[in-house]
């Protein structure tokens, strides 16, 4: 089983450019984290304003994704990627020179809109370039690029900030994004035209039973992952007396587990039933989440974080290739619309996860809240899978035929 499939020069260039784009996207997303204390000291925002600053990215991405993905199906991937990269450059420069919370929130909002242009378009480009037999592996590699950018953004931002001030991380990131823009402009080659038959609507696509299952699985995984960010650090600090640096390393371990397993799960999805793999991943997530609060030492917590991250990666990686296969079976090339759906539920998870975590931990101790979440994940995952199996063998008139089980 090859995790890195053989590919043509055109495919290789496309994959490298997608890796670079997604890496930079998530690098910019997490670059802000270590600089927040500086802005909090200099601008003295309320906690509510800090919350708005972080949530504005997901809100913007959620609002813009249904627009940009389908547009890329009509005008092409290259133009939309270039537009998204220009937006990332502008938002990053705006971060560097913001002197008010209003400008910072605007920069974060523009960053979210830009991500709505780059994420689904980059994934759709991979679906354009690779046949279904290779798509699982390359989608897994793309998810690894995302997790790597998330993993490195905060430490790189912190190091550059300490070296030469708060503007340097953003200006350096803007320079790297300019280089990425140039590389995409010069080297990316794609099909020059799209047909009217490739136009689909996101809501219509969601009526497809298998797509609805994938959307539900993505939402469960993303909410579970994102609700840990505001709740787990406080719990670990209180129970294990770990430092902020140690908490950062624990989340890095979780991200590393996610990134390492994603290509493996992607490759497996072309050999085994991808829906069963997704279900296995969501069950694994439900099983390992309680270990986060059962851990009695730092090493046990790190092991639990690794398994939780790997479970999320194992769950999400098959979803990308399977969405592309559903589009293929319908005789359409509307991959941008399909991956817009993935991005939308990713954004919903980013918004709903911290909110759900806050509500639960206001009502329950963190340990009890994690157990409740794990039980809900397992129960809803089983419900989604049973519903999918009951729909097997039927036809979806909104998009295409069902895949066989």
UniProtKB/TrEMBL annotation:
Transmembrane segments: 12-36, 48-67, 79-97, 109-130, 137-158, 170-188, 200-225, 245-265, 277-295, 301-327, 339-360, 366-386
Pfam families associated with the record: MFS_1
Topology in the lipid bilayer: Multi-pass membrane protein
Primary localization class, coarse: membrane
Alphabetical keyword list: Membrane, Transmembrane, Transmembrane helix, Transport
Domain of life, per lineage: Bacteria
CDD domains, per database record: MFS_MdtG_SLC18_like
Locations listed in the record: Cell membrane
Matches recorded under SUPFAM superfamilies: MFS general substrate transporter (SSF103473)
InterPro entries, sorted: MFS, MFS_dom, MFS_trans_sf, MFS_Vesicular_Transporter, Tet-R_TetA/multi-R_MdtG-like
Domain Major facilitator superfamily (MFS) profile intervals: 14-393
Protein name: MFS transporter
Lineage: Bacteria, Bacillati, Bacillota, Bacilli, Bacillales
């Amino acid at each position: 089983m090859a995790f890195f499939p053989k590919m043509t020069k055109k495919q290789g260039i496309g994959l490298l450019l997608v890796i670079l784009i997604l890496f930079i996207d998530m690098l910019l997303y997490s670059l802000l984290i270590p600089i927040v204390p500086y802005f909090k000291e200099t601008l003295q925002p309320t906690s509510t304003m800090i919350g708005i600053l972080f949530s504005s990215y997901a809100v913007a991405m959620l609002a813009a994704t249904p627009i940009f993905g389908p547009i890329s199906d009509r005008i092409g991937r290259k133009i939309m990627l270039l537009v998204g990269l220009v937006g990332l450059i502008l938002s990053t420069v705006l971060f560097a020179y913001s002197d008010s919370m209003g400008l910072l929130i605007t920069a974060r909002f523009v960053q979210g809109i830009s991500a709505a242009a780059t994420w689904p378009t980059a994934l759709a480009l991979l679906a354009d370039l690779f046949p279904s037999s290779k798509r699982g592996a390359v989608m897994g590699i793309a998810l690894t690029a995302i997790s790597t950018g998330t993993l490195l953004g905060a430490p790189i931002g912190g190091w550059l900030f300490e070296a030469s001030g708060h503007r340097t991380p953003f200006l350096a990131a803007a320079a790297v994004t300019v280089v990425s823009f140039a590389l995409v402009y010069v080297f990316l080659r794609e099909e020059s035209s799209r047909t009217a038959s490739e136009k689909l609507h996101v809501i219509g696509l969601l009526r497809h039973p298998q797509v609805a299952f994938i959307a539900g699985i993505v939402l469960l995984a993303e909410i579970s992952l994102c609700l840990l960010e505001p709740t787990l650090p406080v719990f670990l600090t209180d129970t294990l007396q770990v430092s902020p640096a140690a908490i950062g390393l624990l989340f890095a371990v979780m991200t590393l587990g996610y990134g390492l397993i994603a290509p493996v799960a992607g490759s497996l999805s072309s050999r085994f039933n991808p829906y069963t793999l997704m279900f296995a991943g969501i069950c694994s997530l439900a099983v390992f989440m309680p270990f986060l609060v059962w851990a009695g030492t730092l090493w046990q917590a790190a092991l639990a974080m690794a398994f939780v991250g790997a479970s999320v990666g194992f769950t999400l990686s098959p979803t990308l290739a399977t969405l592309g296969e559903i589009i293929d079976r319908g005789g359409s090339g509307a991959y941008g619309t399909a991956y817009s759906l993935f991005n939308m539920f990713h954004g919903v998870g980013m918004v709903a996860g911290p909110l759900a975590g806050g509500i639960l931990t206001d009502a329950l101790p963190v340990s009890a809240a994690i157990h409740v979440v794990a039980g809900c994940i397992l129960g809803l995952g089983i419900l989604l899978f049973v519903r999918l199996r009951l729909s097997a063998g039927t036809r979806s008139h909104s998009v295409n035929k069902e895949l066989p089980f």
